[in-house]
From TrEMBL, chains A, B, C, D:
Pfam family of the protein (one): Chorismate_synt
A GO CC term assigned to this protein in UniProt: cytosol
Catalytic activity, EC: 4.2.3.5
Name assigned to this protein: chorismate synthase
Family: Belongs to the chorismate synthase family.
Recorded metabolic or biological pathway in which this protein acts: Metabolic intermediate biosynthesis; chorismate biosynthesis; chorismate from D-erythrose 4-phosphate and phosphoenolpyruvate: step 7/7
GO molecular function, one term: FMN binding
Keywords noted in UniProt: Amino-acid biosynthesis, Aromatic amino acid biosynthesis, Lyase
Native source species: Neolecta irregularis (strain DAH-3)
GO biological process: amino acid biosynthetic process; aromatic amino acid family biosynthetic process; chorismate biosynthetic process
């Protein structure tokens, strides 16, 4: 299905080469100031053609609000948003008529639907995420205005280049700071290494994976559910629904599973507003419910499947051959993935907040 | 909420110290042979008191089917199941009246509900998972009979002891093989190291974390959805909803994100029944949809929060003190978590299969 | 599916001749006083064997709360409830082995599931409604305590015997008053006529239909949704999900559709707490949202399908013959349907209230 | 919420005076031929300005498919549709700034959202139904191609003018026949009486209600669910979600509730393809599941609330006064409601069909 959320529900439509992409956002609280100017910045952070590190495909990605607001104020009714597809070149990928791209969705879509969408990969295209980012921007504005909630994502690794001491950044890092680096990794030295790694992949007509880390600050305690809808479960669901993701961890993650309870437990101390934890290995969530500490998590993105480098592989017809993908594509998705991760995080928090507030 | 799934829907109830725990399972296909004997084995693999490595709390965990079958055959109507709580000792944990256990749900439940459930942690208790395992056993039987689907989980790490060459095991490993090891890690040498690590934690009145890896064999291709409900997204949701989980990865996971596309892509070759992939870094899922290869993933479990070792922490009242948790608790949950992981995997696959088949 | 509601979600299980029937109720607010004593009265109003007008099948229908409360107070966790089936006589209906009962679910269940449940009609049995009534009783208690909401149903027709001036009763009628009449029609003369009509049907081994009218008093304004989930739409859904129902109308209903707007519109006047309507043809709902007036509606129940009188009909095998149904059955369901209608109304209101309140 | 359906899910957006209205339709089967030409006819049957009997507001209501098809064939991905609002005159209804229209949603929206949408009534506008009709047209095409399912609605009453012998029409009536009458009541004499009644209301600046009857032919048996999601329950939900509806009945409806079982039961006979019923008081549904007979039902629509005739009523401020609504409005909605009823019926059947088929 193409909806996310039950109370704050986002439904998206659109493929790579159709007329427009967009979404309908339900249950945006009434009385919120929202215009296109609130949404465009995150779309622009997501859009292709931002730097040498991303695909040259040039899309303006201008959002147009269709409904749900009057004079820039939300009515409580669904917000329809449309973003026209401007740069459609459906014939670039001609070799794909013969070959399913390895590790792409070409074959599985065909197996599932029995219909082969035109070049571009259909719904598995990264353009599907535009509606998510637009919807997330609305959620973010509300969350910030109502609670001061801040959501900041950043690139924490590219290939084997890892940002160290990630948790030190969580208290104060801002998007402005993150955007000072073309990689969106907020450390000069590491960012430069990542840039070189991405440009190397680009030069090789290859690609490279990486990770995005994200922090949610100022989320109230009590968000989440005890059983199947734990906060971390919905975050994991949200993040693994982003194209090209392979892994998710909250708080101390896989690494934390190596420690004994006596070292891993977040003991309590009295703070100004109540009990706080001394450490935050839990990543702000205990028993599926937020405890008021920073919620932070990491998402793994594989290297993009579409590469220009020749791959020995079989065609749809089962004939062994060689595929060199043409067309424009990103050598590494993580810089552009940052606003998508933020958007999905905002949707998850918004869902719980609406349930919590009514 | 306490439901998982839309078409194959499982709804659970029950806390640690109530009359019974149980579940209602909707949309079990009619005409399936199901009796308690199909369900009890997985409950017995999950139950406490199996070995020195688990809690001494003794629960028979006998399932009783209430509805939905006649003469051992499913009717297509909801299957109600009840498992009585036999060993209730609500007064063991008396110190918890004063202290929220660090990294447990005691405080967040109180923040959310404003009601403090009696000792035992209420719905965050591991007994909540009994209903899941019972429901999963029904799904598994159907999946095996209809498609030959096999789901096998095993312990892949305890603390810093990691099982090597995990992917080599995926083709043939069976539950019978797994259960020959008290740790459920199917390698004699590694299992012994893990046993020592768990017993060390137990001796220290401490606890230790670990990981469970799980493979789903023979799942048909075409299961999954393109966008928000990708197969890996629902698996991640399912797994992170299990108590004490911190991380999820599918296929090559976080490690795979370090590789370039030219190495990570799973190129195609012609097989007997159609295209297959040469490698399986994708973990059997591409673009959110199964491709017919083994689906495999890893789940991280933190060390149990409840430990006998003294912890310097604050009481509910905000007074600094020392908590030594009494009562019975597991030093390490991963051996008992194996059937829970399998059950959740079965539910996810069943959901897609029912949608796929109607 | 066997769930009703999204936020206040009730999931039921159980057929006529299984071990027990029951339900799981999710999202009951924490801190509510609930014991079996709050639930049993409505179950007893629903149960068979109350008077000469109902089936002689004797079921105690004793509810046992399994979870979700401690010391009689709700925890916020799911409430599991079990009601044992005590009086099982699966062999009474032997002729049904050959004949699908006309206008019963025997044939459609077989067409849908391909499995014939034993005598008793399986999930189409009226015993399926027990879980609904138990869940509704919890909702009602909360709604009354939190808002003073009162829900009162009564029989407004049996066959061609109709209660006149129904709207006059809506302001003050109570369940105690309703229960003074064996028919649950709160008018001595009309009730007596109804009694005669039902006894006539019983004497003839025939059956008779009727209607139940229900009023919800003191519901706050603002409950409901603009579009697909209008308050009247969910009420209609809820009521038409009760076995044997054929029709639903809110406020002035079908009759009101004959009038011009100038007569039908509910004009406003200033009241103590804000604008109120002079008339209430709307039945307390405008544009899908409650306006604070009494919400009232009527539900039509057909005559029970199972009758002792001979029916010329075809067997499963397609052979024309004669069916005389044996076993115990109600000549008229409306007296016993009253608490079921009330329960479904309570669930609908509770759903909106939880969404409204958070 | 603004979604209808779980498997065949339609999500709509749009108010009276926003940029566009539209919808996203999920789970349209792949490989279906769909272009705007399949959708426009039903939109044109719904649109204003068709005859003297409807509002003069002139809207072209041209649908534009945004996504989900390529070369006129569905891909299996969501179909986005946009219909621009062309004739926006937000200042016509100026008196409404002071007065909530009696029996309209003006007051309840304000109570719910605390925001007053501009003149036109916001989401309660009939323009909200455009997305429904567009989505229904897609469902209808599939249902007809796959099963030969035909859905035909018609006007069965206006005010006190009722069409007689409605059930005689159910076997063969077509939309072409219905559209030969400006009232969409397929009987010359009755239609003329209705026309006079509507023109009388128009001349009086008043309005009048009526009913729409609808038949679904060739639906396969086995559609529906036993308990909360009975076929008639979802139909009732769907119909009562249409603006201005007050009542729903299936098959023999309220009238049938007056008859004894011996007369009302639909006895079986052997037909060509299996058992059929001799009569069809059940309206094609037994125990919530279709039995293969015609599914038919009736929906009641009240007289439109917005009338030019003076109404003595209170203003928002609580001051007694007189409201004469200006602007264009329908004196009677039932002729234009016919395609809306058909669309909602198609959505309900499609939901079950997709579940049934997978």
């Amino acid at each position: 299905m193409s909806s996310f959320g039950t109370l704050f529900k986002v439904t998206t439509y659109g493929e790579s080469h159709c007329k427009s992409v967009g979404c309908i956002v339900e249950n945006v609280p009434p009385g919120l100031d929202i215009t296109e100017a609130d949404i465009q910045p995150q779309l622009s952070r997501r859009r292709p053609g931002q730097s040498d590190l991303t695909t040259a495909r040039d899309e303006k990605d201008r959002v147009e609000i269709q409904s749900g607001t009057e004079f820039g104020v939300t009515l409580g009714t669904p917000i329809g948003m449309v973003i026209k597809n401007q740069d459609q070149r459906p014939h670039d990928y001609s070799e794909m008529d013969d070959y399913p791209r390895p590790s792409h969705a070409d074959l599985t879509y065909l197996l599932k639907y029995g219909v082969k969408a035109s070049s571009g990969g259909g719904r598995s295209s990264a353009r599907e995420t535009i509606g998510r980012v637009a919807a997330g921007a609305i959620a973010e504005k509300y969350l910030y205005q109502a609670f001061g909630i801040e959501i900041v994502g950043f690139v924490s690794s590219v290939g084997t280049v890892h940002l160290e001491n990630v948790t030190d950044l969580l208290n104060t890092l801002s998007r402005v700071q993150v955007d000072q680096y073309p990689t969106r990794c907020p450390d000069t030295c590491t960012s430069e290494k990542m840039t070189r790694r991405i440009l190397e992949a680009k030069a090789n007509q290859d690609s490279i994976g990486g990770t995005v880390t994200c922090v949610i600050r100022n989320a109230p305690s009590g968000l989440g559910e005890p059983c199947f809808d734990k906060l971390e479960a919905k975050l994991a669901h949200a993040m693994l629904s982003i194209p090209a993701t392979k892994a998710f961890e909250i708080g101390s993650g896989f690494g934390g599973c190596q420690f004994p309870g006596s070292q891993h437990n977040d003991v309590y101390q009295m703070g100004e507003k109540g009990l706080t934890t001394f450490t935050n290995n839990s990543g702000g969530v205990q028993g599926g419910i937020s405890n008021g500490e920073h919620i932070y998590f990491k998402v793994g993105f594989k290297s993009p499947a579409t590469i220009g480098l020749a791959q020995k592989t079989a065609s749809y017809a089962g004939v062994q051959g060689e595929l060199k993908a043409k067309g424009r594509h990103d050598p590494c998705v993580v810089p552009r993935a940052v606003p998508i991760v933020e958007a999905m995080a905002a949707m998850v928090i918004m869902e719980y907040v609406i349930f919590w507030l009514g």
